[in-house]
Amino acid sequence: MRENEHKIMIEFGETDGAGIVYFPNYLKWFDNATHQFFRSMNLPLSQLKEKNIILPLIDVRCTFEKPLHEDQWIVVKTTVGKMSTKTIQFIHEIFLNGERVSYGYELRGWVLKGENGIAAQPIPEEIRELMTCDDVVNKKEVLSR
Question: Which keywords does this chain's UniProt record carry (predicted)?
């Protein structure tokens, strides 16, 4: 299964008065990690947007195991969880010095934005293959189609 890692430095503005990371920042990091995941497939979400494909958030969950603080480097590891015909679950785990400190998921829809609004669409097979293959040779074969 494909995975991607995204390294982030925690900034002062991401902490609360107690110096602990304010919880909405985890969701921001999840979102950024999903964007990085698509970039790792040479398919930035901006490229999908040009084709009127958007990936709206349907559900999100985050579990906090240990607090994080300013000036710490974290790694957000992202993998694909469940995929239905029209939705993708991205599993995110946040690590500090190799120790998992938080985990969760985003559930996103594969949606076409048209003149009459938005409508969920089946995820194309080549996209499914890109999201699930971890072999460089297979990735090149899928991208060349």
Answer: Hydrolase
